[in-house]
Specification:
Layout (H helix, E strand, L loop, with lengths): L4 H4 L17 E7 L2 E8 L8 E6 L13 H11 L2 E6 L10 H16 L6 E10 L1 H16 L6 E5 L22 H10 L26 E6 L5 H13 L4 E6 L12 H18 L3
Parallel strand pairs: 3-4, 3-5, 5-6, 6-7, 7-8
Antiparallel strand pairs: 1-2, 2-4
Helix pairs in contact: 2-7, 3-4
C-alpha cells in the first residue's frame, strides 16, 4: 500500500480547483526526537514571512503519501496566502505509537521556534489534518500544551480519528460506513500494537483528562462517517473546557467528505477559519 499509494490514490485529482499554478513544494527535513522527517513546504508567491499551517495527511497510520492532500495545500495557499507544510511522518508497520505522534509535535514545535529561518512566521502557526492526521494534529496540540513547547493559534480537525481504544460497535455505525471493522483491526494491529496504550490521551485525544488550554478549533465531521460520534463528542468536550469551537457537520457524506459538488464550499469554510485565526488576528 505504501509503495502503490502515489500511483493509486486518485480522489484528490478532481478536487484540484485552486492553486495549480503554484510551483512544486520545497522539500525540507525537520529534526525530531525520531530523526529528521521529510516535509514539503508550499509557499504563497511574493509573501514575506506568511503564517504557517502544518498539515498531517490521513491514511490509517499506514499509508505514507503526503501528496494525497496536495489539492488542499494548494487551495489554502491560493485562497489565504498562508504557507502550508505537509508532513511525511513515519507510518506502520515500520514504526508504532507514539513515533508519528511525537514527530507531528516536534515538527510543529521546530517550525514555531525556527520559522523565521525558513521564511515563515512561526508565531502564527496552526496545526491540522484529516482522518488519522486529525488524530496526530489533536495530539500535537495536547503535547504542546502539556510540554509548554509552543502555542498553536488554531487546530483544524477534519473527520478525525479521536478514540482508537473504542470498539467498532461502540462507535455506533449507521448502515455500511466506508470505514469498517477491518480497517480498525488493521490500525490496531500495526500502529497501535500495544493495547494497553490505546486509551492514552495522545493516542485517543477524546480520552484526554482535560481539553482546557487548547487552541481555537474547527472540527469537521461527516453525517455518515463511522468517526462522526467521536468528533461530535470532542467538539462538545472542547466547548465545555472553554475552547472556541466551530463544528461543521457535512451533510450526506461519509469519511471521504469532499467531492466535486461540495469541495469549494467545504474547503472555503476551512480556509476562512484558518485566515481568521492566522492572518486576520495578530497578538
Amino acid at each position: 500500500m505504501q509503495k502503490s499509494a502515489p500511483l493509486t490514490v486518485r480522489y484528490g485529482g478532481p478536487l484540484q480547483i485552486a492553486g495549480q499554478e503554484l510551483p512544486a513544494p520545497e522539500r525540507l527535513r525537520i529534526p525530531t526526537r525520531h530523526g529528521t522527517v521529510r516535509c514539503e513546504l508550499y509557499r504563497p508567491p511574493a509573501a514575506e514571512h506568511p503564517p504557517l499551517y502544518v498539515h498531517l495527511h490521513g491514511g490509517a497510520f499506514i499509508m505514507r503519501h503526503p501528496r494525497m492532500d496536495d489539492f488542499f495545500a494548494r487551495f489554502l495557499v491560493a485562497e489565504t496566502r498562508i504557507a502550508v507544510l505537509s508532513v511525511d511522518y513515519d507510518v506502520a508497520p515500520q514504526v508504532a505509537y507514539p513515533v508519528a505522534h511525537e514527530q507531528a509535535h516536534d515538527v510543529a514545535a521546530h517550525l514555531a521556534a525556527h520559522g523565521e529561518e525558513l521564511g515563515v512566521d512561526g508565531t502564527r502557526l496552526g496545526v491540522g489534518g484529516f482522518s488519522a492526521g486529525g488524530n496526530l494534529a489533536a495530539a500535537a496540540c495536547l503535547q504542546a500544551r502539556d510540554l509548554d513547547s509552543f502555542a498553536p493559534r488554531f487546530q483544524l480537525l477534519g473527520v478525525p480519528s479521536l478514540d482508537v481504544a473504542e470498539g467498532y460497535a461502540d462507535k455506533q455505525p449507521v448502515g455500511s460506513p466506508m470505514l469498517g471493522q477491518g480497517i480498525l483491526d488493521l490500525v490496531r494491529s500495526t500502529y497501535f500494537r500495544d493495547a494497553g496504550r490505546r486509551a492514552e490521551g495522545y493516542a485517543s485525544p477524546l480520552r484526554a483528562a482535560s481539553l482546557a488550554g487548547l487552541p481555537p478549533t474547527m472540527l469537521v465531521t461527516a453525517e455518515r462517517d463511522l468517526l462522526r460520534r467521536e468528533g461530535d463528542l470532542y467538539a462538545e468536550r472542547l466547548r465545555r473546557a472553554g475552547v472556541t469551537v466551530q463544528h461543521r457537520l457535512v451533510p450526506g457524506r461519509d469519511h471521504y467528505f469532499l467531492d466535486r459538488a461540495n469541495a469549494r464550499t467545504e474547503m472555503g469554510l476551512m480556509a476562512g477559519a484558518l485566515r481568521r485565526h492566522l492572518v486576520d488576528v495578530r497578538v
